[in-house]
Amino acid sequence: MRKLLFALSIAGLLGGCALAYLSGVTQPPLPPAFNPAANPYANGIYANGILESDQASGENINVYPEVPGTVKQILVAEGQEVKKGTILLSIDDSIQRATVEQLESQAQAASTLLAELRAQPRKETLDVAEAQVVSAQAALKTAQDELDKQQAAYDLNPKSISRDALDSAVNAVATARANLAVAGKQRDLTKAGAWIYDIDNQERQYNALFKSYLSASALLSKYTIRAPKDGIVLAISPTVGSFVSTQGAYDTYTQGMTPMLVPRLPDPAKMKAQMSVRGSNVKIALQYVRMQPFVSPKIELSDQRLEQVDVRVLPVIFRLEMPNDLKLYPGQLVDVYIGE
Length: 340
Description:
Elements (H helix, E strand, L loop, with lengths): L1 H23 L20 E6 L18 E6 L6 E2 L4 E5 L2 H26 L3 H34 L6 H30 L3 H26 L2 E3 L4 E2 L10 E3 L2 E2 L22 E5 L6 E9 L4 E2 L1 H4 L9 E2 L2 E4 L13 E7 L1
Antiparallel strand pairs: 1-14, 2-4, 2-7, 3-6, 4-5, 7-8, 9-10, 9-14, 10-13, 11-12
């Protein structure tokens, strides 16, 4: 029994020594997955870079709606190639469409009334005026014949016709003659057609309503967002049912950023630059294109709104050839060294 306990004690002591030895052995470090970006120039300037699409001027196009409303439909996807004029998304236009239809109906009604004025005199109306003239002529002849008869009887025997009856016949002739004159002037007025001032007034009313209709129609077209030029859809911020305005879509997330400083730049004629893709050993030579002569706040680089110090950035534009074995994306952050 004592021999067994002694053997177990020796075994435990040897095991403890072995464990202590193994615990003290230092394991060799694993090789890095990629080498960190190193300055290839003797006096190079380090900067953060952002990949952008190659354009003749300017930056990526941010599309903002010109009218506020609720997104009704999104017709493209991120990464999709589109042509100029392709519909990107549509905004609910039910109210504006009803306004356009109302103004169109009012303009059509004004146009119809203008055509009616220009088409005067209407043949049927002129025929009525001519008939009224004929009727007035007949009434005048009847009154005149009655006056002639009574005047002849009065001349033969003044007692056969009273003076009141003769005066009434004279007044009837005068009234019939006046009615004929009125009927003739009414016929001439009908034959002349609409007054030129009425036509001009109605024409102006039609033009005003038609221009209001065109303005409302132009505003209605703003509810359909189209691609301003050929390109690729990089990102879509709103979703169907979200509200958008002329300031864009509301973003519920706050994005961070990293500072970028450019203390000194070499002569552009001698400038060389190299880009390192983060997370890989890929290094790509850059070709200087131009310098944007506008110093902007650095928050434009990463859209962070929590800056405590206003730091300004001078954008320098380089061009690179897209490698065949590596996928790069617009908006991707890269490391850049600028030297000469």
